[in-house]
Amino acid sequence: MDVRLESGERRSVKVRRRSGHVVGDRVEVVGERLQRRERDTELRRRDAMGRTHVVAANLDVLGVVIAPLPPSPAGFVDRALISARAAAIAPFLVVNKADLPGAAELVADVRETWIDGPGGLELPLFIVCAAAPDEPEHARGLAELLTFFAGQRRPRRGAFIGTSGVGKSSLVNAMLPDVALPVGEINEYSGLGRHTTTTATLHELPGGGELIDTPGFRDFGLVDISEAALSEHFPGFREVVFDSGQRCRFNDCRHLSEPDCAIKAAVSDGRLAPARLQRYLELLEGL
Ligand SMILES: Nc1nc2c(ncn2[C@@H]2O[C@H](COP(=O)(O)OP(=O)(O)OP(=O)(O)O)[C@@H](O)[C@H]2O)c(=O)[nH]1
Ligand SMILES: [Zn+2]
Questions:
Q1: Which whole number is the average pLDDT over 137-164?
Q2: Which residue in 77, 40, 277 sits closest to 163, CA to CA?
Q3: Is 232 in the same domain as 188?
Q4: Which positions bind Zn(2+) (predicted)?
Q5: H or E segment at 77?
Q6: Which residues are annotated as a binding site?
């Protein structure tokens, strides 16, 4: 795997296949070994056998990519947002294929569902056309996305998830100039893990920030969300209710028909949109 030294120099090192390093890990050289530092965040995926793997370490942001075509399955965006928030990775949204019919409607729908209205999130939203990123009508979206990665105070490290075919690879290519080389990782030294047959890559963006691209998790199965995580991280619940110190009477309240439910109280007095509770209930049903 490749490591990036603090000096910025890159070096290839041999590690055991089962060393457990993943892309984004910070490592230190201890004698003959690379010792992993504690991770700030872990992005997990579930494989076909139902096992959970860490696919990337120390991500700051996770871009949930959708497009007019193919449509993402019902609940996908909410599940992705919840998974990111539960992992302490800040989510953002990307609507790709802005050139296709239906893009404007999708953007309106995204705003209404996640951003506007009572309980809406401060969720960065980028509207891009990865297939023609330099067309005048699409260039701004990509520029804004690159500015977001470059960060105001410090650069961000992110990755994209989304249904197969929404254009994640195209987006990565649009964000990286031709000369960009796949690089290893970080700080001191960092592990760029080889995941069985797929190689995870950490790209440095020209304007600042880093993009992790891992073929194996582009379309990864989201790990199961627990009832507790669903309630804690459902978009809007925390912002409107829990962060202002309101609690349901029962710690494990599912916000169904329990008495003294803070979520239902927020819906009845208009602080939370009823559609939010409805989407929560649909996800709860499907857990
Ligand atoms: N019209 C249009 N097509 C696009 C755009 N971006 C990507 N595509 C097309 O969408 C198809 C899928 O793009 P990919 O980048 O391979 O999608 P992906 O999300 O990486 O797909 P997986 O690797 O299967 O997860 C390709 O045919 C792209 O050319 C876009 O902005 N507009
Ligand atoms: Zn409740």
A1: 94
A2: 77
A3: no
A4: 248, 253, 255, 261
A5: helix 76-86
A6: 96-99, 162-170, 248, 253, 255, 261
What is the CB neighbour count within 10 angstroms for residue 90? 17
129, 145, 169: residue to mutate for ligand 1 pocket, most atoms within 8 A of CB: 169
Distance in Å, CA 111 to ligand 2 centroid = 26
CA of 257 to the centre of ligand 1 (A): 44
pLDDT in tens, 75-124: 899 999 999 999 999 999 999 999 999 999 999 999 999 999 899 999 99
Is there a single domain that holds both residue 69 and residue 205? yes
CATH of the domain at 77: 3.40.50.300
Distance 219 CA to ligand 1 centre (A): 13
Ligand 1 shell residues, CB under 6 Å: 96-97, 99-100, 129-131, 162, 164-170, 218-219
Look at residue 13 and tell me whether its pLDDT is greater than 50.
yes
Residues with Cβ within 8 Å of residue 91, at least 6 apart in sequence: 61, 62, 63, 64, 80, 81, 84, 85, 123
Residues of the binding site for GTP: 96-99, 162-170
Domain with 248 in it = 227-286
Sign, CA dihedral 16-18-19-25, equals: positive
- The span from the CA of 21 to the CA of 5, in Å, is 16
